[in-house]
Amino acid sequence: MQSIVRQMSRYNPSALRVPKHTNLIARPLARTLVTKRYTVEHESVSFDDATGLGVITITDHAQEALGDVVFVELPTIGTEVKQGEQIGAVESVKAASDIYAPVSGTIEEINETLSSEPGLLNKSPEDKGWLCKIKLSDPSEVEKLLDADAYRASYEN
Q: Which regions form coiled coils (predicted)?
């Protein structure tokens, strides 16, 4: 390998130079931790410690139990919520179910797509069917929620 590099530099020394007009941007390395936790009421929160935002969803288990979702009621942007408060509702062909805030904070964004496509909660409950994003007021609340194994055990027993 070294001999190839030497040969290239003998015949074309500019091949080893980095052009002055490169578009390289120096950025500091950042560590981001995303933690996913669950409630016994079948909501989940994916908390990004870099942004302080938690993405709220219902779980796959919840959407299976609900059946075909036909309507989703979401909170208003800017609303301050406390952990355990009702923040919305989901209606399906089988039942209606309230949605509770798994964490405290301020509603920063809602998934507007759910108003015209409530079935996204069935197709992709923990990804494209996210409900809202909350700016957490107390990030330590996340650690008090259930991890994946504890959540699974909560409904299997």
A: none
pLDDT over 90 (residue 2): no
CA pair distance 142, 122, nearest whole angstrom: 25
Please report, for residues 3, 38, 95, the alpha-carbon distance to residue 131 in angstroms, rounded to integers and kept in the order given.
Answer: 58, 14, 18
CA 130 – CA 114 distance, rounded (Å): 9
Residue 152 has pLDDT above 90, yes or no: yes
| Cβ-count burial 104-137 (b if 16+ within 10 Å, e if not) | bbebeebbeebeeebbbbbeebbeebbbbbbebe
Quick check: helix, strand or coil at residue 58? strand
Query: What class does CATH assign to 23-156?
Result: mainly beta
Is the pLDDT at 1 greater than 60? The verdict is no
